[in-house]
């Protein structure tokens, strides 16, 4: 297992250098987006300039954080990943349209996303599911949020400044998916265990 | 009811920010048996560090503070209407104070109420008891894992699952294969078997209140629980779905009588952050 430090925004070359199994530590500006954001982008198709955060070379993090407003600005309490598979029907389009170089979440994604990763030069990063406090400690600052009133705090698009935010590459731009491999081996085990 | 309100707020805090000792012990054991240098071991190490950090800083272990599910055993003579009001008030205050994430979304307007209250939210199950004490169990049920739950109507031909406990075993293994790593393993599973869909779904979730260390009172079910735990861990899905030896840390099976024509099996999946706690009043 190799640990690679990566800086945002990512270039295509950065992404092509990532392989399934690599551990990465991410530094820079991370954009969150989960169910509502993806549904909105896919259906309303806003132009890049209509979105307040720069998505070129960005990582979209599937995360619905706990954030509270304080006198000093936004206070982040907890920010682990949410299940990525729920945005499978949108993500391939989002990656191509907005120049996204990384998708981060948990549980992996399906064949449409895997195809888009290869086609566009993008990687899927799996961070530590449920480790919400540990991961919040790696967010230096919540810079701003978008669509907070419309989507609510948990589903808004947030811009985080992160330092050494850990994740594991589980789907790469070369067509490989750890999730596919595990699905296949677990299916063989299932058939053995039920005698089929 | 003022003191009880504060008690419920503290119960929320305890359940959101710490894990029951049996669950934490099971995760520590899982860490020990995973291979050195594996993604599974690294992931569990972070999970354990997160548990410590959450407890020390009194912050929620997971940002998804779930659907709060209350099991309330009420002594005869105590008003369930008043108890419900107190639970709802406590939920609002706890969400603001701890804080929890507001998770109650209106189906019609798609707006999040922000305070974890709404129609049927939180979930509250009352049961009257002859005991003189009020017992409140709270579970914060994450929704990533809730989404991986399954219901089966036996028989299921593709699985060779007939209407017997062997058929149940096949369904549970199939459900976990379907779940893969999407619900944050290592999982705790509640399995409910019985006559009607609504009843088995509830029964499956009830099982998640049981301690991992308890033994099923029916020896044949205790054997099934043990066997299923062992076999699920042979699937190789592993912690967080990274591959490895620990896909589940507990399997609990509950049964009701069934109708001759029906044999429903519901599987309720709980993530590694199996958050539950009890308040005795």
In words, what does this structure look like?
The complex is a heterodimer of chains A (196) and B (281). With 196 residues, chain A is an alpha/beta fold. Chain A has helices spanning 12-16, 35-44, 88-98, 111-120, 132-136, 148-151, 178-193; strands spanning 3-7, 23-32, 59-61, 66-70, 73-78, 102-105, 123-126, 139-146, 157-171. Chain A has one domain: Fe-S hydro-lyase, tartrate dehydratase beta-type, catalytic domain (fumarase). Chain A has seven helices and nine strands, in the order βαβαβββαβαβαβαβα. In chain A, the strands form two sheets. A five-stranded mixed barrel of chain A has the order 2-3-6-7-9. Chain A has a two-stranded antiparallel sheet with strand order 4-5. In chain A, helix 2 crosses helix 3 (88-98) and helix 3 runs parallel beside helix 4. The longest helix of chain A has 16 residues, at 178-193. The N and C termini of chain A lie far apart (35 Å). Chain B is an alpha/beta fold and 281 residues long. Chain B has a domain at 144-274. Helices cover 39% and strands 20% of the residues of chain B. In chain B, helix 2 packs antiparallel against helix 3 (39-57). Chain B is globular, with a radius of gyration of 19 Å. At the A-B interface, helix 5, strand 9 and helix 7 of A face helix 3 and helix 6 of B.
